[in-house]
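Exercise: predict the fold of this chain.
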Amino acid sequence: MGRGAVSTKELPRGSRVGPYTIIRRVPGGIGGMATVYEARLDNKGPSVALKIAHEGLGGFLKDEIAFLKAAKIEHPNIIKILPTPIGGGSSDYVVRDPVTGCWYFAMEFLSGGSLDDWLQRKKRLTLQQGVEIVRQVGAALDAAHRAGIVHLDVKPSNILFREPPGKNRLHAVLTDFGIARPQSRVTISGEARLTVEYASPEQVQLAQGEEIDIGPASDLYSLAVILYEAIGGRLPFNADNDLAMMNQIVYELPPLPIPSAPPQLTPILQRALAKDPEARYPSAQALVADLEALLREAYGASSGHRRQMHIVLALLSGVVMGLGMGVPAGHYLTRTTEVTPLPPEVIVVTATPTRAQGLLPTITPSVTPTLRATASTREPTSTPVPPTSTSVPRPPVGVMQTPLVTSVPRP
């Protein structure tokens, strides 16, 4: 098989690659240059992600590791490369298996799947979820850019999650630096596979053989395409073939505004998806700052503040309802609210209506509660007092008896 050919033959469970035992191919793990498997070192311990280059493409794995190690990038939102033991107490990061002849390296295994998987299930995300993904992936890109590296392949399948994403958990990790390059004037190699849907205009021009500057703005454009897709449920450009889509990316403007999105999002996407790299945001951090300002403007206070307001409104509603029903307002106070008990010489006697014929009230003794307000509970302590009244005139049939409060001197 010649250089550049892609071998998609899947390794069966139990196969050995160096010191690793294959468990399965990771869903969606077949890429243009390598296939990713879940594996275990010596068939024990925690799982790792094993990236095995397609035949003839081991050099790309070497480049990927070389860039990451030379830049010394360590970031919670960037995939961590693991050393592989090679015998004699030594280890290396990119290894050639002497039995199969394939090149591979090991990474931390992330069990949450990819953003591509999530988008296929949900079709679209909330604006808050989209902004959170941009914030985390953008932080990874800013770290790479400070180290002088342009990723050049930012797309949903290269954004993984440490655990399945949900409403209150979202930890995105950027992976696959296989075609990353230093920031310089370059022409793209024919062996590098371009994912057209997420490519920037300058990447398209590079793929067409032009010489042009490539910089961090290219990755930020791809990140903006991901945000557009996540919020809008579709890509900004759509065509029957790659050539038509490439022309759209270079020459056409994306459809805006996105339906159902806040109108404040439109100018942000217009800047982030500008054809001219100089007109885009200077960093992911600057993009995120505008997005977070949008959230504050579109949705008001922070979620924590909104939650507190909801609690206050619920309590006020309960107080109003309670007063309307004749229930003491203190009944609706929070557990940390101090309640002043009635004077010791007052005994409360209440008439409790029943559903018996004629709504006959019964007299039940009540006690003066002593409330202890604590962080966890409010316990009434009391001493029962015999009732001092044994009869109350029967109300007319059909008339609701209102609570009766009578002050009786203590004997």
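Check your answer against the key: DSSP finds nine helices and 19 strands in the chain.
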